[in-house]
Write a structure and sequence with these properties.
The chain has about 190 residues and is an alpha/beta fold. It has one domain: Aconitase, domain 4, CATH 3.20.19. The chain is built from 8 helices and 7 strands, in the order βααβαβαβαβββααα. Strands 4-3-2-1-5-6-7 form a 7-stranded mixed sheet.
Length: about 190
């Protein structure tokens, strides 16, 4: 997992509530055994028609959002099933941060485990940023170390994140890396 302390990126506004994991990555694309390659299927039924052609009316297909790395969404993002493929698809597509008023608990934890910073933010702030991101190019900086976001107008907004998960993200530690920190004890036990 890649360590992340600060991320500056283009915001993509997904102005929808209750986006479930099947909308994030449809079930027919869950046949891979590796964690990569899912980005091409992100929001598939919104991005593509039945013949696989891009839907020009879906905003993520617009050139203005080609390099977006921060996803701004409505409440209850990531609801539905517990599929870990949802954060894999977001990460593989290029999203490093997801900001929403609320997240489904399982998605929130899966995002943290896979190196995505999920930021829970007040609805009024999300609405303000959503409007700005829909109107023009909107870039923000997320500082995980000091737990704040700086928007294009230099407004600073603080956010909370559990200390345990913050430390893992800052150091790029996944569950295996945490286990391997105890390699000496594990080796001694195996003797």
């Amino acid at each position: 997992m890649e360590a992340i302390k600060k991320h500056k990126g283009l915001v993509y506004p997904l102005n929808r509530t209750n986006v479930d994991t099947d909308q994030i990555i449809p079930k027919q694309f869950l046949k891979r055994i590796e964690r990569t390659g899912f980005g091409q299927f992100l929001f598939y039924h919104w991005r593509f028609d039945d013949e696989g052609n891009k839907r020009t009316e879906f905003s993520l297909n617009k050139e203005a959002y080609n390099d977006a790395s921060i996803l701004l969404a409505g409440e209850n993002f990531g609801c539905g099933s517990s599929r870990e493929h949802a954060p894999w698809a977001l990460l593989d597509y290029g999203f490093k941060v997801v900001i929403a008023p609320s997240f489904a608990d399982i998605f929130y934890n899966n995002a943290l485990k896979n190196g995505i910073i999920p930021v829970q933010m007040e609805q009024t702030q999300v609405n303000q940023w959503m409007q700005q991101a829909e109107e023009s190019t909107f870039v923000i900086t997320v500082d995980l170390e000091d737990q704040y976001i700086v928007d294009a107008n230099q407004n600073i907004v603080h956010f909370d994140i559990p200390a345990y998960h913050k430390e893992k993200l800052l150091n790029g530690w996944d569950e295996i890396a945490l286990t391997l920190k105890h390699q000496d004890k594990i080796s001694a036990y195996e003797m």
